[in-house]
Amino acid sequence: MSEITVAGAGIGGIVAAMKLAQAGHSVTVYEKNRFEDCGYEQKDSFDASAMDYAGIEIPEGYIAPGNEITFFPIDDNVAPLKMPSPEGYKNITVERKALFAYLTGLAAEAGVKFVYETEILAPVILGSRVCGIKTADKTIYSDLVIDACGMNSPLRKGLPAWMSVDKDAERYDYLYAYRAIFDRKEGDFDTGERYKIYVHSDTGFTWIITEDDCVDVLIVDFNEIPFPKIADELHRVSERNPHMGLNLIRNGKFMQIPVRQPLAVFVADGYAAVGDSAFMTYAAKGSGIAYSIKAGTILARAAAEDKDGLYEAETLWKYEKDFFYEVGFDACRIALIKNLLPYFTADEINEIFSKKLVTSEETEKLLTGGFRKTELPGLIKDKIKLLGDVPEFRSQLLMLIGWLGKFALLDSFFPAKYTREDAAKWSERYNRFFESTGNPARREEQTEAE
Ligand SMILES: Cc1cc2nc3c(=O)[nH]c(=O)nc-3n(C[C@H](O)[C@H](O)[C@H](O)COP(=O)(O)OP(=O)(O)OC[C@H]3O[C@@H](n4cnc5c(N)ncnc54)[C@H](O)[C@@H]3O)c2cc1C
Questions:
Q1: φ and ψ at 369, to 5 degrees?
Q2: How far is CA 379 from the centre of its chain?
Q3: How many Å from the N-terminal Cα to the C-terminal Cα in the chain?
Q4: Closest ligand 1 atom, residue 155 Cα
Q5: Architecture (CATH level 2) of domain 3-64+90-169+259-323
Q6: How far is the CA of 69 from the centre of ligand 1 (A)?
């Protein structure tokens, strides 16, 4: 039996904790917040197949119809685009606090101990190994530390550089977000447009979801959004949606949502990151619940195979490898498509929709993770044909083709086995490649060249 510490009650960490406790290990989750304050005050949607993958029963009431999204380009004169939910997609929509209570309840039943109101400050490192965590008044040693502290994890930031686990996110790796639930007024409301996305600038979007008794608003932007700008946007969308009141019912918080490819390396001796702490989000919109549930399951499976209980990077590499082959490489391709966004202005996105260069099914598939590697070559071929008449977007499409082609070569460099040198080489190659695609300076270079 091993002593396992889960740092932070992130979703993937709770799932891994539950499975490792079921396998007979002693598992403790340390969380900085009180139980009542964990989970956001909002409803979230995610792919139900992740729960099936993890063998977690889906409670009654969790399955909801997939959202038919209406997408509004910045220009009111361009017709909005309706995006049906992909066929066969099984959707869960649930209050985050209810999901948190459900998963922690299952984990507790399996024997996991939860210690709330305990902030983790740093990892404990002895020689080449992560052997525990430091809190304000304690050092807690364990055989394996699972980092589920989210995007700004102090554990990840405290690891030595030679572990090749990157510490910081770059610009365009995350969105600044404001989420707020407002009252619902009497007023015209088209029930066919319950879920809307507006392009509000060159760098941001606003989601409006109409519920029976409230209106849920999410404003996201790659630039930090000062409150006056938020207030302007709230007024703008409430004018366009007369049923939306401006009395805040709940949430009203600023947050960050990671939208990037997974970390190049997220394991080390005695350490594995899961969920947002390893940037396992769906890069087009930052949905990471399904990936976290899958990753927690894959991690527990790899750890169970480590019969010596040493949890060295060599054995935890199986977790990283399985995650990349089952989820991560697809997530990388989505990240590449997301990295194209800074190369378009809101007016250009407008034009793409007005000229019907992207169909509603394609946009919906992008938003729900429906594209597979095998579909992309055919799709790109079709788009090249279509762009014959619209040469102004050719450069962006060619850039994407170049990125996808280079990425196809890059994924063949993924090390089959872990050695410190190979992991470092992989990390350097992977990061150099993504830096060359996501670097906003390239946009300026491109404009200058034109
Ligand atoms: C506004 C918003 C809307 C979203 N909507 C969706 C959605 O609809 N669908 C979807 O799939 N995903 C959505 N996401 C993304 C989703 O929340 C995450 O991708 C997913 O939960 C995985 O993150 P996590 O659980 O690993 O990390 P987090 O949710 O960040 O959890 C980390 C946990 O660690 C704790 N912690 C952090 N630091 C410390 C510390 N030093 N010591 C102790 N504990 C610590 C935190 O308190 C927290 O409980 C949304 C995110 C945001 C911000």
A1: 80, 25
A2: 24
A3: 63
A4: 41
A5: 3-Layer(bba) Sandwich (3.50)
A6: 24
In sequence order, the 6+-apart residues with CB closer than 8 A to the CB of 275 are: 10, 11, 12, 13, 148, 150, 288, 291, 292, 295, 296
Q: Scanning the structure block, which residue is given the tokens 């365009």?
A: 172
Return the structure tokens found at 437: 């695609």
Which residues are CB-contacts of 46 (< 8 A; sequence separation ≥ 6)? 91, 92, 287, 289, 290
Predicted pLDDT at 406: 87
- Is-contact 123 158, C-beta < 8 A? yes
Cα–Cα distance measured from residue 287 to residue 89, given in angstroms and rounded to the nearest whole number: 15
Q: What is the pLDDT of residues 206-227, one digit of tens each?
A: 999 999 899 999 999 999 999 9
Tokens of 397: 């499409």
Q: Which residues line ligand 1 (CB under 6 A)?
A: 8-12, 30-33, 38, 44-46, 119-120, 148-150, 154, 177, 179, 218, 255, 257, 275-277, 281, 286-290, 292
Name which residue sits closest to atom 13 of ligand 1, judged by CA.
Answer: 287
Residue nearest to atom 30 of ligand 1 (CA): 150
- Structure confidence by residue, pLDDT tens digits, 129-147: 999 999 999 999 999 999 9
CB atoms under 10 Å from CB of 47, counted, come to 23
Q: Where are the domains of the chain?
A: 3-64+90-169+259-323, 174-258, 334-449
Per-residue pLDDT tens for 14-55?
Answer: 999 999 999 999 999 999 999 999 999 999 999 999 999 999
Q: How far is the CA of 151 from the centre of ligand 1 (A)?
A: 8
Pairing of strands 69-72, 195-201: parallel
